[in-house]
Amino acid sequence: MLSFEHLYSTLPEPLWVATQVTPVADPELIAFNAPLAEELGAKEIPDSATLAQWFSGNQPMPDAKPGAMGYAGHQFGNFVPQLGDGRALLLGEVIDQDGVRRDVQLKGSGRTPFSRGGDGRSPLGPVLREYLVSEFMAAMGIPTTRALAAVASGERVVRQMAEPGAVFTRVASSHIRVGTFQFAAAQRDEALLKALADHVIERHYPEAASAEDPYMALLEAVVARQAVLIARWMSIGFIHGVMNTDNCSIAGETIDYGPCAFMEQFDPQKAYSSVDQGKRYAFANQPAIAQWNLARFAETLLPLMREEGDALVEQATDAIRRFDPFFAAERRRLHANKLGLAEESDQAMPLMEGLESQMQQGRMDMTATFDALTHYAASLSDEHREALLSLTTQPDALAAWLDNWRAEQVASQDSQRLAAMRHANPIIIPRNHRVQEVIDAAYDGDFAPFHTLLDVVTQPFEDSTEARRLAAPATESEQVLRTFCGT
Ligand code: AMP
Ligand code: MG
After folding, report:
1. Which of 107, 184, 302, 355 has its CA 20 to 30 A from that of 85?
2. Which ligand is nearest the CA of 158, by number?
3. What pTM was estimated for this model as a whole?
4. Of 143, 175, 207, which residue sits at a domain end?
5. How far is CA 133 from CA 31, 263, 434, 441, 469, in A?
């Protein structure tokens, strides 16, 4: 079905180590992303039983060549020289319909040389969560790894309790991380490091090859993509939760959906992850953390760069600092769209700051607020104005903000701008309590709620009764306060 190539595996060990899949007891297909398979060049999609065999790894797909990728990483600031794919196997790359090389990886497919104490498996819950959230991000146009398949393993995996297991198939522009570079650098083998960097330039940043210093150009390009990515995350309240350097993609995609969650009631200091006690990866810290990760990336590249000594450090530091203007420009563009303003409006930033403070002080749900504002912008009706004001505990203050916003917005309103506003403001996000609800149902053997939620979050601008029901913020008793990595 997919035709695999194997460019990454031409890189020397231990960047990639051939490893066999450990079969599972009784694979059963949960979900398969046929449109994505088509995008990857699949002509015919076989029946569910065959898909279950292939995407559990029980039967090798023709031409697949499974292997684990080596990587290191700073986890919550502490360097771990060897992490690697402990429960994932790269099957190979496919060239998609646009001619882009993309990785296909099984996750939960058994132990690898990098498994350390782990069992190489995934519980069902995190597999469903990653499926839902990554496909939602894709539907929002936010760079992300994709979900191709989820297969129940028919086995139990033991975490806090025994849970059903599953295998997830992930598609990525590549699975190369900042941690991959840290791993290569830790081998103290400059040829290995250079081979990795050249692979990345050829694959993701070909324009860097002709720069005066290709490795400096690579750093600059990665900084730019990360800055855009983090701005996009924040525009919809996404909190990654584990922004370790091993979870930071060189291609600038969202990767490794663990305890991630979307902000509901607006609070810049919000962190959900149970493992993030110090709130290192809280919502508002994400740009600074991305920059910190990029500094670790830069350190690995220094030996390959042309300049030397202080001049080199200064150049690399400047490259990392350029995160700020890239981030600010993207954020400004996104803010203008979210507020229905012209992209060049100089009021986008102050108005957004004003609205953020309204949302925080008025205990407003972020997604519901922008959805209500979008409806009001389109109709300017009293009914929609009241609906928006009903979301805050401080309606007078919000009404004053609305007057300022209208003065800026009405003057420049047109249908194109309203369409851009709609596309910046989803009706629905995969809310934490809804994700938990469908996981709970799946644990009882009922996958229908998962499929329903997947349908609506992958059409996040489509209004329907079902979408409205699933879009509603959690009531006090439904609120999820903590999320878990679930490894
Ligand atoms: P994560 O938190 O999923 O980003 O994983 C961090 C590291 O732990 C990676 O090297 C994973 O491959 C490894 N890991 C996570 N879960 C398991 C598992 N069940 N078995 C083996 N390795 C694992
Ligand atoms: Mg990871």
Report:
1. 302
2. 1
3. 0.97
4. 175
5. 14, 13, 12, 17, 18
